[in-house]
Amino acid sequence: MTTREQVLDAARDVANHLALDALERDRANAEPFTEAELLRKAGLPSVLLPASIGGAGLPWSVALEVVREIARTDGSIAQLIAYHYVNAHNLVWVADDAGRARWGVPSVANQWLWGDSVNPVDPDLRLARDGEDWVLSGTKNFSTGASVGDVTLVGGLTDDGRDLLVLVPRETPGFVKGGDWDNLGQRLSASGSVRFDDVRITPDAVLGSASSSGAFGSLVTPSIQAAFGHFYLGVTRGALEAASEYTRTTSRPWLLSDVEKAVEDPYVLATYGRLVARLRAAEALGRSVGESLSQAHARGADLTWAERGEVAEEIAALKVVSSDLAVEATSAIYEVTGARATANKHGFDRFWRNVRTHTLHDPVQYKAREVGNHFLTGAHPDFTLYT
């Protein structure tokens, strides 16, 4: 039996391994095939999948801890595993028993990573009928993990307006990866474009529809937003840990400080203190979110829309707090390390670049609005693939 402690030990081992050359890999901006294999060998892809198909069947709180742990040293690979957890969990949210077994058993046995091509604000993909099959066509500008994933979850629209989730194995003819992800941060997240040139989708590759799977299936959005929050918390802690090591070993006290070491400077101490205090509070909220989300998943088909809404609002609060803290803290570390810390050889900028890039996924102000609206009126936001 796989336990929470075993999974977190494996995640820490992966994080420590990734830390050895995190900066060099970030600058290389290569497709993360080696890193994906590291996740597979650690057994992390099957953490959430149910025991009925061979998975560990652990709660969502554990998966979120895995994301946070890996994000300490490599934000890109934390994004890969976070998106995988959400994509693969559509086997639980959306698929029927036959689909769950058909795709879940090999997914667990081979520790498959699932890529993502579902972004609802990206150009739509079309599914046209051809006998019993579907033909998938179109382009997605952003498709995290598709180039290195074993399968990719794809959201397409049919001619009669239905939205379907289908699975496309990596080497499927007509599935073209752009290899064009070259952004400020998250450089190894394999988030480039993909194109589907009349890809044939057989009936057994259709999982179902997220929009018609009820309150339980709608947990897809709170789950990915919870993963985002834990990702930001992990990067923040990683940035503070890296900065603190530099402050202890390399930073020099300011000439007007009247102290011998940077770690004795009252302003340095106060800056670290405020950031660490806020991080500890945000991490406590993150743990509460993990428990709430786990309980919501345990409700299964009995989950009500009101219960789902309460969980979504708590997660929205985490998104607001963790986003603001991550962007601020990853910049503020330079104030407690000093001018020499800006040397490219240290690479402290990668923490800020990663959170600055990913926090733009969806505007955090809309999450703040949701929290405020719920506080004042008790309202829950309508379900979308962003809320």
UniProtKB/TrEMBL annotation:
Family matches, as Gene3D superfamilies: Acyl-CoA dehydrogenase/oxidase, N-terminal domain, Butyryl-CoA Dehydrogenase, subunit A, domain 2, Butyryl-CoA Dehydrogenase, subunit A, domain 3
Question: Looking at the record's lineage, which domain of life comes first?
Answer: Bacteria
Question: Is Transmembrane helix found in the keyword set?
Answer: no
A Pfam match is: Acyl-CoA_dh_N
Task: Please give the name of this protein.
Answer: Dibenzothiophene monooxygenase
Similarity comment = Belongs to the DszC flavin monooxygenase family.
Alphabetical GO CC annotations of the entry are: cytoplasm
Where does the record place the Acyl-CoA oxidase/dehydrogenase middle domain?
A: 127-199
